[in-house]
Every structure is written in structure tokens, then in C-alpha cells.
Amino acid sequence: MSPSPSPERSPGAARKPRLDRRTLRSDLRHLLFDTTAALAVTFVMFVVLYLRVEGGTSQTLEVMPHLADAQRYWLYWACQAFGWSALLWAWITVMLGLLRATMPIPSSPVRHSRLERWHRVTSVTTIALMFGHALAFFLELLRQNDDGLGTLPLLFSAFVDVFVPGGYSSGTGQVAILLGLIALYLAIPLSLSFYVRAWTGSRLWRVLHRFVIVVYVLSVWHTLLYGTNVWFDGAFRTFVWALQLPVALLFLARLLTPIRPEERLTRSDLQRGPVFPALARLCGRLLAAAAVVVLLLVTVTGRDGGRTPGQPSGDMLVTQPMVWGGLAVLLTVMGAVGLAVRASGQEPERARRTGDS
After folding, report:
1. Higher-confidence residue: 277 or 87?
2. Measured distance CA(308)–CA(234) in Å, rounded
């Protein structure tokens, strides 16, 4: 038998618009307050950094003593201020997202819907702060113009150094800036795709959005590798590591007590049913538990891989080809997961059509 004709779409079943304008407008209203708060924090950080340079107490001066003229290099300190506020907002938005995806506490005064809205808004602010971090560095390169280039060559050179992944070719920045740019360019689609869920499908969006945790890891790695304020061993660098402990704990809690029943792991899942998904979930939980142990040891011992003043830093353990290889693996995994989700979502539709034939 041939397939039966498709029923006409009723007015109530009209396709939803691809862009969720209603939620976007609501989030933009809340974004004004969040962005203002973020800029205020950035300004405070800028003042602190500026005064530390003026007083000669900034760790950055141990790495680059020529930056001691705070007024001349104010764009560099603005770049650092945006970087630190971006990392802080990234920490906040990741914590909110993990709380949203974990089983709610009955006595919690904050509803999950509000956590989700805060998570969306702080995500957008984080992207803006990351861009501000890069833009300030771009403007500083234009101001310095160490090679005496003309206007167009200077703009092109600075753009490649700051915004083209792999374009920066000097020192630790070869890897650190590459990591930061990968984090920025992944954050944009993974965060903003919420507003086009009607186009991608909620399930596909939800699965891919989980890779945001990779963006956060890359951001922290970029900071610890290139942040001259945490270049050397010390209390502040250890504090940055310690801030990752609640993230790891909450991530582990999110895996152990997911809000969606289909994501939970039980003994019967390991004994019956598809083996690979159950083993993948088990491995994820074990890796998260291992991360908690490592972060706890780093925080307690203070041995966190920082450089020692007065001693050579040695060769980089991670190179650009390694980062590109890791990115290729990540994108391959994301693509495979996306295709698997789309294929599994089409199975019920295929079954329905076969039954109608």
C-alpha cells in the first residue's frame, strides 16, 4: 500500500518560529542589569591592577618589567581586567547551569526556571566580556605598532594575532591564545543556540549544550597558562585552582543526580540493555570523581604547575599541533553525537510512516 496522504496542518499546529523572540526579548531586559554589574566589576579590577602596577607590586612586572608605565599601557590592564571578569562570569554561569540540571533541593528558595534564566543571561554576558578581553588586546597591539606598519598592514597583523586561531606565533601565547579563541568561538554557538531550539530540536540542543563545560575548561587553562597575574606559584594561583573545586563537585552531583530520569545510571542499566551508553555514563562519573580528587590535592598542596621566579620555565608540554588535534577530536565527537541524536529522533517518525503504509 502507498503511504496515506499527510493530514493538513491545523492552525493550532503551525510550526514554531525558529528564533524564540519572546525569551530573547525577556533575557535582553535582564541582560542590561547583568552587563552593568559585569562592567562595574571589570572597572574595579582595572583600578586594582592599575594601582598595583603604580605601586610596583604587580606580578606582571616580574614577567614584563617594561609595562611599569601604567598610564601608557592602560589598554593592557583593561585587557587583563576584562579577562578576569570574563572568567568570573564564566564560573557563575557554569555553576548556575549545573544547578539547573541537578535534582532540586525541596527547600530551595530559587525555582529552576529562574536558575535557567540567570544561566542564559550570564552566558551572554560572559561572551561579551570575552570579546572585550580580546578587543582590548587588539587595540593595544594597534597602539604599540612595534614593527612600524602602515594602517592596513597593522590592522591585518593585529587581527590575525588576536582573532585568528593559531595566528599568534610568539612564546606561550602560541598555545594560550589559541585555547582562548577556541573557547570564545565555541561559546558563541553552544550558548546562543538556546534561542533557536525550535530549529535544532530541544534534544539536540540539550546534548550539544553540555559541551559548554569544555569551553569553561579551556578558559581556565588559558588563564593559568597566560595570565601574568598567576604566572608564578603563589596563593592567588592556588585560589584560582581552588575555585574549580565547587565546579567539579557540582558537575559530579549533576552526573549522579540528573534531573531527567533517562540520564540516571542504575545497576540494572549496567546489567541489561545497551552496554555502551551505560559504560559511557559510568566513565563520566569516574572521571568527574577523579577531577575532584586532583583539584583537592592541588588546592591543599599548592603544587599547581606555576612557574618559579628566577628559574627558566622550560619547554611547553602542549604544542599547537596537540591543541588542533584535540579540537579535531572534540568536533568529531560533537558531530557524531549530533548525528546520533538526529537519527534517534527520526526513528519514531519512520516507524509511524511504515505503520501507515
Report:
1. 87
2. 9
What is the secondary structure of 195-231 as a DSSP string? Answer: GGHHHH-HHHHHHHHTTHHHHHHHHHHHHHHH-GGGS
- Is the distance from CB of 356 to CB of 5 less than 8 angstroms? no
CB 134 within 8 A of CB 184: yes
pLDDT digits (tens, 9 = 90+) for 136-169: 999 999 999 888 899 999 999 999 999 999 999 8
- Structural contact between residues 245 and 292, judged by C-beta atoms closer than 8 angstroms: yes
**Scanning the structure block, which residue is given the C-alpha cell 552593568?**
36
Cell of 257: 543526580
Q: Phi-psi bin for 305: left (phi > 0), alpha (psi -120 to 50), beta?
A: left
Tens digits of residue pLDDT in 39-75: 999 999 999 999 999 998 888 888 888 889 989 999 9
Percent of the chain topping pLDDT 90: 50
In DSSP notation, 248-307 reads HHHHHHHHHSBSSGGG---HHHHHSS-HHHHHHHHHHHHHHHHHHHHHHHHHHH--S-PB
pLDDT for res 40: 98
**Is the model's pLDDT at 89 over the cut of 90?**
yes
Query: What is the separation of C-alpha 157 from the centre of its chain, rounded to a whole number of angstroms?
Result: 27
Pairwise CA distance, residues 240 & 224, whole Å: 8
pTM recorded for the entire structure: 0.86
Residue 102 bridge partners (DSSP): 258
3 state DSSP class of 232: strand
Closest CA to 313 of 175, 128, 216: 175
Give dist(CA 259, CA 104) in Å, integer. 8
pLDDT greater at residue 345 or residue 19: 19
Q: Which three cell numbers stand for residue 213?
A: 563545560
Report whether pLDDT(37) > 80. Answer: yes
**Number of Cβ atoms within 10 Å of the Cβ of 345:** 13
Which candidate, 84, 99, 88, places its Cα nearest to that of 122? Answer: 88
Question: In the structure grid, which three cell numbers stand for residue 63, read together?
Answer: 614577567
